[in-house]
């Protein structure tokens, strides 16, 4: 097995660590488990192989600060952040701090494994230019004014109810607009949608 098949799991919940360790081992990944971001950073020297899967809410150094410290130390290892359903704002913040992806719990095992494989496959393109930015802009141009407002709310990390309140429409209408945005943007997930919006924003 190549060293780039290594997955570092960072989570303060011992049961989560064990279950993720078992899942990833059965998917043929090499796995290392850490009970905190501090424990990982204490051993992080030189070039880091593979990718990191971490919870966003942890005592001490949380997932967002963990990302910042990794980047400040010059580590470009891809990081996948796990979030609770109510943590959309934190997930968006994680993406802005350079997370490769975020996954909402509870998640399907296949979704996590696919996200890890994608992160590993794209890890050398972290700092590359985004050739798809023109395509993303073209998709954005197909959105209605209301759909753009809903997208802005999502990228700001706002839940549907808050977006609905701010726009003076019902949460159900927000859900419809959100589905239309996902379809027009060809987004496979909320993290994919946010990532596309951030690509364009970073090149504005």
TrEMBL record:
Q: Print the keywords alphabetically.
A: DNA-binding, Phosphoprotein, Transcription, Transcription regulation, Two-component regulatory system
A Pfam family: Response_reg
Response regulatory domain location, by residue? 6-120
Question: Per the UniProt entry, what are the Gene Ontology biological process annotations, in alphabetical order?
Answer: phosphorelay signal transduction system; regulation of DNA-templated transcription
Q: SMART domains of this UniProt entry? A: HTH_LUXR (SM00421), REC (SM00448)
InterPro entries assigned to the protein according to its UniProt record, in alphabetical order: CheY-like_superfamily, Sig_transdc_resp-reg_C-effctor, Sig_transdc_resp-reg_receiver, Tscrpt_reg_LuxR_C, WH-like_DNA-bd_sf
4-aspartylphosphate occurs at: 55
Tell me the domain of life: Bacteria
Q: Where is the HTH luxR-type domain?
A: 136-201
Recorded protein name is DNA-binding response regulator
Q: Could you cite one Gene Ontology molecular function of this protein? A: DNA binding
* Source organism of the structure: Mesorhizobium mediterraneum
